[in-house]
Amino acid sequence: MLNQFSRTELLFGEKAMKYLKQCRVAVFGIGGVGGYAVEALARTGIGTLDLIDNDKICLTNLNRQIFATHSTIGKYKIDVAEARIYDICSDIKINKYPCFYLPETADNFDFTQYDYIIDAIDTMTGKIEIIMRANQANIPVISCMGAGNKLDPTAFKIADIYQTKVCPLARTMRHELKKRGIKNLKVVYSEEQPVKIINNLENSDTRRSIPASNAFVPSVAGLILAGEVIKDLVKLA
């Protein structure tokens, strides 16, 4: 009997689809990268999604974030994501956490409850804490490195953190994780050199830290993250 996952089942088989339905995946950060990962996971049949983000949608999100439209500006991303995902898959379970993941909020999460974790947040301290907690709980985690100031979506690669190159964020993460005894970490990263930002009023000296972005680079990173999660889980089915 046909259902909304029939085309996917042709690729993975019935057993794998039943397993994905039982899986719970946490996505930390549902912006330009994480938002696309969330939707792809829902459209592939993941049974439970935990969404962790405390941001509201703003005007500058419209150029790249899948949950951002003029009608959703000012709303919390996790609320908009929840409504959209339920409209795609009505029987999925969604757990929402309106907070930024940092060491001081880490105790609110029991990583042992997850089957897989996606790190799509921007803060270094938060990323490290996610990876450390996932490692302690022996739960697989995949982390996105820098996607800002990039133009080439074909430059993304999947590798262990210690095999990455070019990406400044990955370089810093390698150093910090090595100090903490983390021996491996699957990451999505880009080997494209960061593009020099055009100086204008929106990127003046007072706002130099704001990265440039677009519709096609973060989205590809998010879809790669979701694809790796699904492939890894299907292997366990």
Description:
By secondary structure, the protein is of the alpha/beta class. The protein has a single domain (12-236), classed as Rossmann fold. 36% of the residues lie in helices and 14% in strands. The protein has 7 helices and 7 strands. It has helices spanning 6-12, 14-22, 34-44, 77-88, 124-137, 168-179, 217-236; strands at residues 24-28, 48-52, 93-97, 116-119, 141-144, 156-160, 186-190. It has a 7-stranded mixed β-sheet with strand order 3-2-1-4-5-7-6, with helices on both faces. β4 (116-119), α5 and β5 (141-144) form a beta-alpha-beta unit. α1 (6-12) crosses α2 (14-22) and α2 crosses α7 (217-236). The protein is globular and about 55 Å long.
Any chance you could write out the topology, listing elements then pairs?
Layout: H1 6-12, H2 14-22, E1 24-28, H3 34-44, E2 48-52, H4 77-88, E3 93-97, E4 116-119, H5 124-137, E5 141-144, E6 156-160, H6 168-179, E7 186-190, H7 217-236
Parallel strand pairs: 1-2, 1-4, 2-3, 4-5, 5-7
Antiparallel strand pairs: 6-7
